[in-house]
Amino acid sequence: xxxxxxxxxxxxxxxxxxxxxxxxxxxxxxxxxxxxxxxxxxxxxxxxxxxxxxxxxxxxxxxxxxxxxxxxxxxxxxxxxxxxxxxxxxxxxxxxxxxxxxxxxxxxxxxxxxxxxxxxxxxxxxxxxxxxxxxxxxxxxxxxxxxxxxxxxxx
Length: 155
Description:
The protein is mainly α. The protein has 6 helices and 3 strands, in the order ααααββαβα. The chain has helices at 6-38, 42-49, 54-68, 72-97, 116-120, 128-154, and strands at 99-102, 108-112, 124-126. Strands 1-2-3 form a 3-stranded antiparallel beta sheet. The termini are far apart.
């Protein structure tokens, strides 16, 4: 498909929207997981947890793992989940705050100047496939977070 066509641009834009929406769902599930872990009421959660940036929520979860997860295997699973979330949110920020447009070859891309690109000045190109894969990864992490919250509730 021609990357300058309206159909391609619409498809690319939809993938970016999926990333934003999926990250919001994951953030909401992280709020619920922290709220359940700390046994907070809605007022406490809305005042303390919801306003936190995703990175701060994940940092808090790292501290909570040491206190609330006694089994080493379970702690390893949660720690891996937190690491994957941090990576996904960094990628989400690249897509959300990157420059959307055509590169010099006429390819549609989101150009990001973060991570290694921040120092080199060489932007990272996000293809439509990569953006779609990130949206799928965020949705899978959201589902995993919901599963952890249910497991905590039944424990």
